Amino acid sequence: MILVFGGTTEGRKSAAVCEEAGKPFYYSTKSNSQVIKTANGIHITGGMDENQMLSFCLEKGIRLIVDAAHPFAEVLHQNIAIVSEQLKLPVVRYERNYSQRNKDLLWFNSYDEVMDYLEKTNVNNLLALTGVNTVSKLKPYWQKHNCRFRILDRDESHDIIKKEGFPIDNILYYRTEEDETSLFEKLNPEAVLIKESGDTGGFNEKTEAAKQLKIPILVVKRPALPAAFVPVYGENGLRKKIEFLCPDFFALRTGYTTGTCATAATKAALFALLTGREQESVDITLPSGELITLSVFSTSFEGDKVSCSVLKDAGDDPDVTNGQEIISTVQLNPDHADVRFLQGEGVGVVTLPGLGLAIGGPAINETPRRMIIREIRNELPEGTGIDVTVSVPGGGEIARKTFNPKLGVVGGISIIGTSGIVKPFSSDAFIASIRREMQVADALGCEHVVINSGAKSERFIKSIYPMLCDQAFIHYGNFIGETIKIASELGFKQLTMGIMIGKAVKLAEGSLDTHSKKVIMNKIFLLELAQKASCSAETLQAIQTITMARQLWDIIPETEYTFFSLVSTMCYEVCKPLFTNGTLEVLLIDEEGKTIK
Questions:
Q1: Residue 9 domain-assigned?
Q2: Is 586 exposed, middle or buried (0-12, 13-18, 19+ CB in 10 A)?
């Protein structure tokens, strides 16, 4: 059993990760002010001292503690450390992202240090954005000087203010609609006091507003965490750590894409080239913004080149590249000031249009290219470019087991990945995770859910339905039919499906499972649709030349968009019998996010 200490944004994310397992876990908050509904999480409130925590962990058979509490919850952190030491329990800390400490700000180790500074510099008008729990810590100051506190409008906050005797007229309540600059201009404080609360706590917004108005910013440094805590910096990092520490909690392990591996190998190779030292591991950022660490498998120096490799771990997904070495060789090139991608052994060459890549170039997809460029561009000497050659030993043989030859990628595999993460492909496990997400949406009272094939289509439809909560958006992967059945079983009143053209043409033909291992694009069917839509002879001829369905957007003129309307209608007709008791909406999405019904 897992015990999560939350009450924060990180706590909510931790609970969402644990929900994916479909198994019970405990979620603890000090008060009941944070409303959290889960299908499997057991929410406990009231806080725990050392002895209560020890008894709870023994009684409930806790095997792992996830500390996702506020960084300034020092007593809680210490109690967790004591209990984990006594019971030999691992502790994972879901950490926030923190900006580098800016020298323009005034940094303090404690509130006593802050008050000493305020007295010495005669600050008599302070705005404290440090929360209600710091009212008592700053009492010696505000008893003698003008001080305002901004707090959350909660009963427990009011009780603390009353207990400490703080003047109610100097209390401000946090309002989401009020930006920091307007507040600072209105109050005109001599100084602003904040905590090093990280990106989640709006640290950058507060400091930027104060700097803009030339108001001194005092920052209390976040307390150091116990050394035994293992930090993670995002949902994927937490899941990977849980998979390692509690191997039986999730049914299947996640993995990393070839694009992620190539990015890590490239960054490690560049660091080795610039420093002359091998890298044991390297940190990179996923497209989601999450920081991850990957191990470097090998490093070799050859003149002015360095090659590093990372072993592809696809988790429990039956990926043909699992266990392969993904190698990146880098060489500085003063003849250009850019990142140039070259083809290495086992990486395919693009021979046909439709992939969004230059014909004749290496099959390194757009997202991996962006990831690599983002990681290495700022590390390059000014005015110097770099050549990046990605290789996969044995990639030519592996590619024969894929659809690459049909797509016009010859001689090797493609370096791919849009999220950087490989979610294990198992019909039962994936469908079970869809059901769990639907159950959470139902528990939150959602009447309208939106199903999407992935992050790209979800991003587009979120702009159409911004009022829906995050839990109302659910990925169906390839399991369209099963997802609609689950939504129908749970009784949702409205179901919106966002679908891209690649899956849409398969669904329109009647395939409710659109995985490429089961069904591929049928040109004969597309030609029949084009004829029904009265498309021109030129369009019919162009359809016969495409290798990917997304090329349909390029070859069909807007005057013949009845073709896409027909695809959308046929998708609706295939799906509607599965969702008979509610309203179904099908939105076909183009590459720019425009929708067609």
A1: yes
A2: buried
Helix (H, G, I), strand (E, B), or coil: what is residue 250? coil
Same domain for 396 and 369, yes or no, is: yes
Model pLDDT for residues 329-366, shown as the tens digit of each residue: 999 988 888 899 999 999 988 887 666 788 898 989 88
CA distance 299 to 280: 9
Structure tokens at 213: 């108005």
Distance CA 511, CA 466 (A): 30
Instruction: Check whether residue 210 and residue 271 sit in a common domain.
Output: no
Q: What are the backbone angles phi and psi of residue 54, rounded to the nearest 5°? A: -60, -45
SS3 of residue 423 by DSSP = coil
CATH for 270: 3.30.2110.10
Q: How far apart are CA 375 and CA 264, in angstroms?
A: 9
Does some domain include residue 250?
A: no
Lookup result for tokens 């100084």: 191
Burial 175-206, CB ≥16 within 10 A → b, else e: eeeeebeebbeeeebbbbbbbbbbeebebeeb
Both tokens of 110, joined, read: 């404690």
Token match 């191990």: residue? 295
Helix extents (H) in 258-343: 258-275
State whether 199 and 237 are in the same domain.
no
Query: Could you tell me which residues are beta bridge partners of residue 149?
Result: 128, 171
**Boundary-marking domain end, from 422, 454, 484:** 422
Instruction: Print the domain residue range for 476.
Output: 427-596
What are the tens digits of pLDDT across the range 181-196?
Answer: 888 888 889 999 989 8
Judgement on whether residues 537 and 473 belong to the same structural domain of the protein: yes
At how many degrees (to 10) do helices 9-19 and 235-245 cross? 50
Same domain, 439 and 477: yes
DSSP structure string for 334-361: TT-SSEEEEE-TTB-EE-SSSSSS-TTS
Query: Among candidates 149, 74, 152, which has minimal Cα distance to 110?
Result: 74
The answer on 34 and 6 residing in a single domain is yes
pLDDT at position 380 is 85
The two structure tokens encoding residue 132 = 């209600």
Cα–Cα distance measured from residue 366 to residue 318, given in angstroms and rounded to the nearest whole number: 24
508: helix, coil or strand? Answer: helix
Same domain? For 343 and 490 the reply is no
- At 108 the three-state DSSP class reads strand
pTM above the 0.85 mark? Answer: no
209: domain CATH number is: 3.40.50.1380
* 568 domain-assigned: yes
- Counted domains in the chain: 4
DSSP state of 524: H
357 and 488 within one domain: no
